[in-house]
Design goal:
Blueprint lengths: L1 H71 L9 E4 L2 E4 L7 E7 L5 E7 L7 E7 L18 E7 L1
Antiparallel strand pairs: 1-2, 3-4, 4-5, 5-6
């Protein structure tokens, strides 16, 4: 009978070892899932930041182009104008009340829509809407399957 008691005690220790190893495995799995969740969130933030940077660059390019053609060339003082921005020529429709809008597509697939308002004479107001994706023929709408991000720059002088 003494040998039977020892066998039962050994079996209880074996169950404890199995339970303890399952507990350790559960802790490791939980920590791994937590780290995975953090990595996925950081990846999404990085992707949105990249798209935001593309949209801001488009808005900046549109603003610089409009400032150049307005300050240096005085093109927006005419009822119709022709400008060349980023290798794209744009011929305007006749302006109504000295306000106009034009859209340009950039090489990287981004798009910019620029509003020029000279109705507040002698002041000029420029608003440049930059998009990470868009179709310039539809005022930078019609985004593809990617998330469309908009960044806006405004200048008054």
């Amino acid at each position: 009978m003494i040998t039977n008691k020892f066998k039962k005690i050994n079996n209880m220790k074996g169950g404890f070892t199995l339970l303890f190893s399952l507990l350790i495995l559960t802790i490791i799995l939980s920590a791994s899932l937590g780290v995975y969740n953090i990595v996925i969130r950081q990846f999404k933030i990085s992707q949105i930041s990249r798209e935001s940077s593309i949209a801001f660059t488009a808005a900046d390019a549109g603003m610089e182009c409009a400032l150049y053609w307005d300050i240096k060339k005085k093109e927006f003082d005419n009822p119709t104008y022709t400008i060349d921005c980023l290798g794209v020529s744009f011929v305007s429709k006749p302006m109504i009340d000295l306000a106009t809008t034009f859209s340009l597509g950039l090489i990287n697939g981004s798009c910019v829509k620029v509003e020029v308002d000279k109705t507040l004479s002698p002041k000029t107001k420029l608003i440049s809407y930059g998009y990470n994706v868009g179709d310039p023929s539809s005022d930078c709408g019609g985004a593809s399957d990617r998330l469309q991000v908009e960044r806006v720059l405004q200048a008054s002088y």
